[in-house]
């Protein structure tokens, strides 16, 4: 449900950048979204179209780069892949994990005119 | 091509950082209370305020989609409270809290309780400038809530397991619940309380006082 506010956040960043870097329309927006960021990608795409209506990013293509979840396992002393926050370490089965990537929620770059 | 490399919620984070700076300068301990609807958040806060208000001034920001009912319940305890209605929104954000702080004008070395919208999903991602999130889970909910809503339990520093006076009537496995919470957040602290019977509240108050002492401004 908060995908809509995330889209509003995206548009705010774009509008601030447009004022700063003097562009007037956006062709493409590339996002980096982590697997653990708690974002439903379909809802995000839908929200993006709604929020960008009548804005400088109307009709912009939304490209999403997903980032896999990785955690540092304390007992194993190494990084391990995880797909959910409650996953156990795939090597030792323990839960002493510190998420190191996969919670990204970033705008990477824009193609603009 | 314009390189942005900026967090999508950077605007919110900037408001939150502003709030945090303001609160820190005044030595105010701010706690962001999150839970599902009906966990007993408002009852627990009202009881906490009633029991602590003689020791320390407390102000409250109440977030709900609609109605001012909760702010009225809090004001009945004598604490200053503002209600923020998020309308269609599912969470409070840094900007809303900043505006609420302006009208509340909390005093130096006081406590600020922010009661977020009852929702175990969205408030996890929105920093408000608090020192930490306190997640309230009642024993009438399932012990697997931390696994169903991992982001929230991951984001919280303390879990209050509420309504423990009802445990004799329920099939709720406290140890399993705590184990589940530690699976998503190995560092989470857990306190078992009942806002109705008062069980465990002394530990909760001791925790608040210790956090508040660490937060207080040293300047006279």
TrEMBL record, chain A:
GO process annotations (BP): protein maturation
Keyword annotations from UniProtKB, A to Z: Metal-binding, Nickel, Zinc
Keyword Metal-binding carried by entry: yes
Amino-acid positions noted as binding Ni(2+) in the UniProt annotation, renumbered to this chain: 2
GO molecular function: metallochaperone activity; nickel cation binding; zinc ion binding
Record: residues binding Zn(2+): 73, 76, 89, 92
Keyword flag Manganese: no
Family membership: Belongs to the HypA/HybF family.
NCBIfam families from the UniProt entry: hypA (TIGR00100)
PANTHER family xref list: HYDROGENASE MATURATION FACTOR HYPA
Function description: Involved in the maturation of [NiFe] hydrogenases. Required for nickel insertion into the metal center of the hydrogenase.
Protein name according to UniProt: Hydrogenase maturation factor HypA
